[in-house]
Design a protein that fits this description.
Chain lengths: 145, 300
C-alpha cells in the first residue's frame, strides 16, 4: 500500500509536467478559452444578452492574451499528435501564420481602444476581430467534421 | 471480317454521337427568357450566392479577390490541376463577347462556345437547376465588372481524364435539371432554400459524397464527404449528424451571417469564402437556406 502511494506520488509530477509541456494541449486550451470569451460577445450581438462593458473588456483581454501567447505554441516538432487541427502550412509559411496573429492582435487592440459602449458599437468591431480569426482558419487549420 | 469492321465502325459512331457536347436549342432559350429585362441587383445576389469570385477572382496574396474575375486559381485534384478561367467581360480573354445562349450552354449544359465539354469541376451540374432569367441577370452583372486581359493556362490532367469526350457520357448519366430533394409544394421558403442550395449555391459539390464516376450521390445528399483539397472532411449538413442536427434554423442562419457556430467556433477552410458570400445575401435568403437544411432527409 505504502509502496503504491509512493510510486503514485513519484509519477504525479511527471504526468503533470507532460501535460503542461505539450504545446498541442496548451494551444488547444488557449483556443478553448478564446471560444469561451467569444460566447458573451455573440450573446450581446445577437440580442440574447444585455450589453455589459465589463464583460466586453474582459473578453477582449482574453483575445489579446491569445494573440500574444499562441504563436509560440506552434513550435517545430508539434506538427502532429493528439487530435491537432494544425495544418502543415503553419510551418511551411511561418511568416504568414505569425502575421495572422499580428492581424488578430491589431483588431483586438482597435476594439479595446474604441471604448465600446453599446451592442450597436460592438457589432462592427466584433466582425473585424472575427475576420482575423477566419483569415487564419481558412489556410492554417484542417477542417474536421 | 467485313461484318466485324462494320460493327466496330457503328460502335465508334454511336460512341461519338453519345459523347458529343449538346447545348440548348436557341428557340428553347429565347422562350425561357422572352421579354426579360436584366436586373443587376439580382445578378449581384446570384454572384454572391454562387461564390463566383471564390474561384474566378484575380489572385492576390494567394487568395482570389472579389473585384476582377481574371481567373487563375489552381485547384489540385487526384486527376490533375484545374485552372479557373477568366470570366471578366474582356472580349478575347474573358467572356464579354458571349451571347446569352453561349452563357446558358456553359452554365447549364457544360458546353463552351467552341462546342467543347467543360469538366464538372466547374459546377454546371448544380447551375443546371437555375432559372434562365437569373442567369441573364448574373451575366449582366458580370459584364459590369472590370475587364481583364489576363491569360489563364489550360488544365493539366492525367490520362484518361485528359480526354474531354468522355464527359459527354457522364453528362448523359448525371446532368439533371430537376431538384434533388422533394419539399412541401407551395412552401415558398423551402423552395427558395432548395433553389439556393441545390442551384447557384452548389453546396452539394463539396458536401455530398461522390460515386465511382465522381457524380454527387443523391441518396446521401449533403451527407458529408472527404475534403477534395486534401486533409480533413467536409461536414454532413443534414439533421442526421447529431452535432449539426442540434443547430436551430436560427443558428444556421446566424452562422452563415457571422461565421460563428453554436459552439462559438469560427468558420475555417474553404467555407470561409462561402460564408462571407452568404453574409452578403438578404437575411430572408439565409433563413430559407436554414429552413431547407433543417428539412433534409437525415444522412447518418
Amino acid at each position: 500500500m505504502k509502496r503504491t502511494v509512493l510510486i503514485a506520488l513519484a509519477l504525479l509530477p511527471v504526468s503533470l509536467a507532460t501535460a503542461s509541456d505539450d504545446p498541442i494541449a496548451q494551444r488547444q486550451d488557449l483556443m478553448s478559452e478564446t471560444r469561451e470569451a467569444l460566447k458573451p460577445l455573440i450573446g450581446i450581438s445577437r440580442g440574447q444578452a444585455d450589453f455589459d462593458a465589463e464583460t466586453v473588456s474582459a473578453s477582449l483581454a482574453v483575445f489579446a492574451n491569445t494573440a500574444e501567447k499562441a504563436p509560440a505554441l506552434f513550435p517545430e516538432g508539434s506538427e502532429t499528435g493528439g487530435d491537432t487541427e494544425a495544418k502543415a502550412t503553419i510551418w511551411s509559411d511561418r511568416d504568414g501564420f505569425d502575421q495572422r496573429f499580428q492581424d488578430f492582435a491589431e483588431a483586438v487592440a482597435a476594439a479595446q481602444a474604441a471604448n465600446i459602449a453599446s451592442a450597436e458599437e460592438l457589432g462592427p468591431k466584433l466582425q473585424d476581430v472575427l475576420g482575423t480569426c477566419k483569415g487564419c482558419h481558412d489556410n492554417y487549420r484542417v477542417e474536421k467534421e | 471480317m467485313k461484318r466485324w469492321l462494320f460493327f466496330l465502325a457503328l460502335l465508334a459512331l454511336a460512341g461519338w454521337w453519345l459523347t458529343r457536347p449538346v447545348g440548348f436549342a436557341p428557340g428553347d432559350v429565347s422562350e425561357r427568357t422572352a421579354g426579360h429585362v436584366p436586373d443587376l441587383a439580382n445578378g449581384e445576389r446570384l454572384f454572391n450566392a454562387g461564390g463566383c469570385a471564390s474561384c474566378h477572382g484575380r489572385i492576390e496574396d494567394g487568395k482570389p479577390q472579389r473585384d476582377i474575375m481574371a481567373g487563375g486559381l489552381e485547384m489540385t485534384s487526384p486527376v490533375g490541376t484545374f485552372r479557373a478561367p477568366n470570366i471578366s467581360p474582356h472580349p478575347d480573354q474573358g467572356i464579354g463577347g458571349w451571347t446569352a445562349l453561349e452563357f446558358l450552354d456553359a452554365m447549364q449544359r457544360g458546353v463552351s462556345p467552341q462546342g467543347r465539354h467543360y469538366y464538372p469541376a466547374f459546377p454546371y451540374a448544380s447551375y443546371a437547376r437555375m432559372e434562365a432569367t437569373d442567369l441573364l441577370d448574373l451575366k449582366a452583372y458580370l459584364d459590369g465588372l472590370p475587364a481583364s486581359d489576363h491569360v489563364v493556362g489550360g488544365h493539366e490532367l492525367s490520362f484518361p481524364y485528359s480526354l474531354r469526350r468522355g464527359i459527354g457520357l457522364w453528362k448523359r448519366l448525371y446532368l439533371d435539371a430537376d431538384p434533388v430533394i422533394e419539399v412541401a409544394s407551395g412552401d415558398a421558403v423551402l423552395e427558395r432554400g432548395r433553389y439556393l442550395v441545390e442551384g447557384p449555391g452548389h453546396c452539394g459539390e463539396c458536401h455530398t459524397p461522390r460515386n465511382f464516376a465522381q457524380a454527387m450521390d443523391p441518396g446521401r445528399w449533403l451527407g458529408g464527404a472527404p475534403n477534395p483539397e486534401g486533409e480533413g472532411r467536409v461536414p454532413n449538413i443534414t439533421p442526421g449528424r447529431a452535432s449539426f442536427g442540434d443547430w436551430s434554423a436560427d443558428d444556421i442562419a446566424y452562422y452563415l451571417e457571422s461565421g460563428v457556430d453554436p459552439d462559438f467556433d469560427v468558420v475555417g477552410g474553404s467555407m470561409v469564402a462561402v460564408q462571407e458570400n452568404m453574409a452578403r445575401l438578404d437575411a430572408a435568403d439565409r433563413e430559407a437556406i436554414a429552413a431547407y437544411l433543417k428539412a433534409l432527409p437525415p444522412v447518418e
